[in-house]
Predict the structure.
Amino acid sequence: MFRRKLLQFSIGALFLALPWLGGVVFGEVNDDFSKCLDFFHQRTPPQGISATGGYQPICQRHKNQYHFASLYRRQHRVPLYSAYILSPADGKRPNSTWMYEPQLVYSRADPNMATLRTPVDQNVMETQAVTDDYRNSNFTKGHLNPSMHQKTRENRQATFTLTNIVPQRAGSNSGPWSSLERDVLRKFNTICEGPMHVITGVLPYESGARWINNRVSVPEYMWSAYCCPSYKPDLPESVRPFFPTYAAVGRNDRNSGTEIVPVDLKARSSVRGYDVRRMTLESLEGILRQRLAMPISLFAGQCQTRPSDPLDLVHPSATIFVTSPPK
């Protein structure tokens, strides 16, 4: 009953309140992100997201390390967003060994993500997406936290969990959206002088959910925003608008209207209709607030640093080590 009452409040409030409530925490799938707050600017997750949508915070844990955080929507079997610290890859993209979240099946299960086996356990299928959902669907498995934005092999392996994946059209995934991911990485490498916090998510269809395999919700749009409060001084005027924050929204449906993202009719036919519109953080938050009907704020203080807080001045690793073994 206590937990049921808590869920009536916004997840934004839970993020701040629960660490001090003294509740029992069984694992990484829980009511808040208290175990992996370092993946958020100023250790503060996005605010204003209502808990009534069935959203589940997940501290993504692989090989006894936290690698990023996802807010998962159970009924839709996709994340609303994944949040991570960008760190350029030190190697190649790993083989796609797909994993799932055991604690979505049993709350006291091992908190590490586990490899999907064939045949898939029915209890796993009932609680989250599986690879069979994407087979013959005309959709790719779209990473919200892309593997090449993660430094070590273990970091990159951890992104291959179905709780970090949404149905994404190939024209978007390997076209304009891929270009956006490379552009963000390039900006980090050339201009950012501290940690870059990234939050990437989806917008469902306003007219109602659309599904693949009658199980997994298809997003109409992808969106992403970064926060880099420490960057090189004396930026050229052409680059200045991109820091400390910037954002983008990408089309995942060629037939969507053009109110949010216009269509470039001169683009090559294979990617036309999957355009990405770059915009300010404020513009993105306005779109999210309107489409999701929630007072969303993605970065604490709109990505302003707090010099007195050493956590904001040190570039943390993209991996957070867990000192205690899983129970």
